[in-house]
Amino acid sequence: MAPERTAQSLTDLWDRHGSSAYSLACALLGDDAAASLAVTRAMVDLAHSSDDASAEDAQRLLARRVYARCQGLAGDTPRTLLLPPMMVWLGELAQLQRACLALCVFGGHTHREAADLLGAPALTVAALLTSGLQELGRLSAGGTATTG
Predict the structure, then answer these.
(1) Is residue 24 a contact partner of residue 63, using CB atoms and an 8 Å limit?
(2) Is the dihedral of CA 13, 19, 23, 25 positive or negative?
(3) Best label site of 22, 107, 125, 143, fewest CB within 10 Å?
């Protein structure tokens, strides 16, 4: 059995990617407390895992764990408005569109990696990324979402 991660390697991972992991969870869940719980559980998962990721892959590994934890919490989490405007705007997007943006922007995944994780075609993910960014632009300019 491979040894668990060291406290220093977890600290380094958190220092480099913790804010992105939290943003990913907020974007997916729309709730500060649930996002904190998802990230905490993902870090505990990593602490006890034997996954050996390079420094370049660490953000994606953490993002995958956060995404999985968010999936388990999503049904029990009400979306709140006690979030920064960008997170509220992300909450206005369709779930798959929000997941695509969150995984690629905050999780460091390529659109093809996000497609694999979401079980969607890569072209669909690319289209959702484009339309999602357009929607966020409209919302930030004071418009309303055109997708559900």
Answers:
(1) yes
(2) positive
(3) 143
Residues in the chain: 148
Where in the chain are the domains? 7-140
Report DSSP letters for 94-120, one per residue. -HHHHHHHIIIIIS---HHHHHHHHT-
Residue-wise pLDDT for 80-105, tens only, equals 655 667 777 777 888 889 889 888 88
- The tally of CA atoms less than 13 A away on the side-chain side of residue 28 is 35
140 and 89 Cβ atoms separated by less than 8 Å:
yes
**Domain 7-140 in this protein, CATH class:** mainly alpha
- pLDDT tops 70 at residue 143: no
